[in-house]
Amino acid sequence: EVHLVDSGGGLVQPGGSLRLSCAASGFTFSTYWMTWIRQAPGRGLEWVGNIKADGSEQYFVDSVRGRFTISRDNAKNSLHLQMNSLRAEDTAIYYCVRNLRGDYAFDYWGRGTLVTVSS
Amino acid sequence: DIVMTQSPLSLAVTPGEPASISCRSSQSLVHSNENTYLDWYLQKPGKSPQLLIYLGYYRASGVPDRFSGRGSGTDFTLKISRVEAEDVGVYYCMQGLQNPFTFGPGTKLNIK
How much is the average pLDDT of B60-87? Predict the structure, then answer.
């Protein structure tokens, strides 16, 4: 059974950094694109960025490009989101998500981890 | 960026009755490979979103056949043939044609 366990969220001051992690199990992690999606409190869904199965390509929404990076360790079935220069508007639940095929459609979601950026 | 809109933003449906949600994109979601990159997701209260429909009309694994996706180009519809109590939540359409992938604002479905 596929499991995605997000972790690493918490309270951070504006300008600070945080690293989110996602532990994957139940599938061949190294063959799937992975994605991070966030949801601000009471708001809709926002695609943050994704990473190719072999880690060779990453793409981001404009609002986080240059501040966020995505990495993966296929030997350890883990995905990471490094968030730097955090802003209040980055406050959200961050979901680790598996892509169904290629880089589209999201068939498995973690439970999410809450990031709060506040002084 | 491709802008996604949905209507209505909320609806209340009697159990057993049909429901329909519309989604429109600011540009065609048809790829040169002839696939249409439009998905539908449902976020039940307090839960992570779940995939219902991908590539316009393919039902995801385990999704009941009362859910169906239709449409092409820029206009799409999610239809629920007979609404059940467990269908409450927020429905999102999403385009997967080009980065950044973008979601519609969501349609909240309640039971009458």
Answer: 97
